[in-house]
Every structure is written in structure tokens, then in C-alpha cells.
Write a structure and sequence with these properties.
Structural class: alpha+beta
Oligomer: single chain
Strand content: 5-15%
Number of helices: 15
Distance between the termini: 46 Å
Helix content: 40-55%
Shape: globular
Number of strands: 7
Strand order of the largest sheet: 1-5-4-3-2
Largest sheet: 5 strands, antiparallel
């Protein structure tokens, strides 16, 4: 059980920095207990579990890890906790962005260094509600993942590429995952070695590597690389809600398109994902006019 203490280079918010790695409530691979963050994942050295606890008295973060991937996880701490990220590279061009950064000075962009860990749940989120995708992720990990190393038995590590490939078609159906998404995941895990190489590329090359695989478009690539690389310019396009939120926050207008969102974020070129993240943290969203999109369940068909 190796341990390490990390001292951030400036203000640091552990929960807001790493919260983007959680895939909904009840994520078997991510948990918060007594203020501590727990993360179970499959590293290049094997399964590992990481416990992180902020220590306000010292300003540091205490980390412990278990399993074959323990040393790898601890070696990746600087990237995971945002030491390689520089929030000062963004110059606020709007009051709402300035205020969000002032209120949340400790938010950094986490870099996991793992591709499939973020790619597979992003594929599950294609063209469905978040609730449907989170349910699928939970069911697949509980049924086909493995117990996470360490003291907390209520966590799971996602399957390795072979484990994903061996999931039968009816299990995908039971989890509510249609054939298009499951086929995309199967293509990704069959190309796992090439896919994981994207973690060592710049944003443009990594995007090309991911989108060369049928079924992975710009939306999925951006959602993946925001987490894998901590990429500050990996703005999500093709999202149902993000352009409307950005447009409303910056202009007060409704119905913003992707093209209009990119135009609004043009002053943040190189930092567009960071700017969008700060806008989301501001909480300024358009009032809801219609009921929520109904949750489907193909497992009942």
C-alpha cells in the first residue's frame, strides 16, 4: 500500500477537479466517502485503487494506492491533480468567466493518462440521456468488471479489452446499450493498444487517432480527451445542451447553435474547454421550458 503526499502549486479544489471523472451517481469506479475521493481503474500495470484526501492543515493531498497499478497511479498524481495544467493561460473576456474563476480558483483540468477509461463511458453516452448511460456503465461494471484492490469492496475495475470483447450481445441489451454503441466499443477494445497511444499525443493527433475509428466522432473524442489529456481546448461540439448554456450565459439568448457557440468562444482559442467549464460552474443556465427527455430502456424490448 504505497502512499504519497502532493503539494499543489496554488489553490486547489480536489472535488471539482476530479469530479468530472465520475460517471453519475453510484459509479462503481468512483466514490466519495467521508470527504475522500476513491478511484478504481485499469492502468498499464493492472488494476489499481487510489484514495485521495485533502489536508487543509498542510494544503496538500494525501494519496494511497492498492493493487498492481498502485505505483503507476501514484506516479501519475501530478497530471491527475492538475500540476501540468496552467489555469493562468486563460484570459477572461467576459465578466461571467472572470467571476467564475474568482469564485473557483482551485479548479484545474485533470489528466488521467488513460484513454479507454474515458472513451468507453463516452461512447455509452452517445445519443442517449445521461441517466441511461450511467445505468449502463453501472450494470456493465458490476456484472463484468472485477473487484477493486484495496479495503473498499463496493468498487469495481472496468474489464480489460478481452473482458469487454467477451460480453455477450444479450448483456449489452440488458444494460440498455444498442448495437451501434456496443459495436463501437468492441472496435475500440480490439484496437486498444493503438487507442491508448493517444494519451501520449497532442490534442490534434489524439483526436485524429480516435476519430479514425468508425463510431467515434468529434463529440466522443472531445469528451474523452478532456479527461485523458486534460486538454484545455477540447471543446465539445454536437452536444444537445452545451451550446444553449454557453449562448445563454454569454448573450442571454436561447437556441445557440454549435457554430454560434464556437464564434462566442473564439476569444478563448486554445482554452475553449476551460472557458466552457468555468461558464458551467457559474450556474447560469436557460430556464427549462419543456419536460425532460423521457428515459428509454431497450432492455424491455
Amino acid at each position: 500500500m504505497p502512499a504519497r503526499t502532493w503539494l499543489p502549486p496554488g489553490p486547489f479544489d480536489l472535488h471539482r477537479t476530479l469530479g468530472v471523472l465520475q460517471r453519475g451517481p453510484g459509479d462503481p469506479a468512483f466514490a466519495v466517502r467521508d470527504g475522500e475521493l476513491w478511484r478504481a481503474c485499469r492502468t498499464p500495470q493492472g488494476p489499481g485503487t487510489l484514495r485521495l484526501a485533502a489536508r487543509p492543515s498542510s494544503g496538500g493531498v494525501e494519496a494511497e494506492a492498492w493493487g498492481p497499478g498502485a505505483d503507476w497511479l501514484l506516479d501519475q498524481l501530478p497530471g491527475l491533480l492538475g500540476e501540468l495544467d496552467d489555469p493562468a493561460e486563460l484570459t477572461a473576456r467576459h465578466r461571467i468567466v472572470h467571476e467564475a474563476r474568482r469564485r473557483h480558483p482551485g479548479v484545474r483540468l485533470a489528466r488521467t493518462g488513460l484513454v479507454l477509461e474515458s472513451l468507453i463511458p463516452s461512447i455509452l453516452e452517445q445519443k442517449v440521456t445521461s441517466d441511461e448511460a450511467y445505468r449502463a456503465w453501472r450494470l456493465l461494471l458490476w456484472r463484468h468488471g472485477e473487484p477493486a484492490p484495496g479495503p473498499w469492496e463496493r468498487m469495481r475495475v472496468m474489464p480489460d479489452p478481452r473482458g469487454w470483447a467477451l460480453i455477450p450481445s444479450w448483456e449489452w441489451h440488458r444494460a440498455g446499450v444498442d448495437a451501434k454503441r456496443s459495436s463501437t466499443i468492441l472496435r475500440a477494445v480490439r484496437a486498444a493498444r493503438r487507442i491508448e497511444e493517444a494519451a501520449r499525443m497532442d490534442l490534434a493527433d489524439a483526436t485524429r487517432r480516435l476519430t479514425a475509428l468508425p463510431g467515434i466522432g468529434p463529440w466522443t473524442a472531445a469528451e474523452t480527451l478532456q479527461r485523458t489529456l486534460g486538454a484545455p481546448d477540447a471543446i465539445t461540439v454536437g452536444d444537445l445542451h452545451l451550446p444553449k448554456i454557453i449562448g445563454y450565459a454569454l448573450t442571454g439568448r436561447r437556441g445557440t447553435t454549435d457554430e454560434e457557440m464556437l464564434e462566442l468562444l473564439a476569444p478563448y482559442e486554445g482554452q475553449r474547454h476551460r472557458a466552457a467549464r468555468l461558464i458551467l460552474l457559474s450556474g447560469r443556465v436557460p430556464p427549462r421550458r419543456a419536460p425532460r427527455f423521457p428515459v428509454g430502456d431497450i432492455a424491455r424490448l
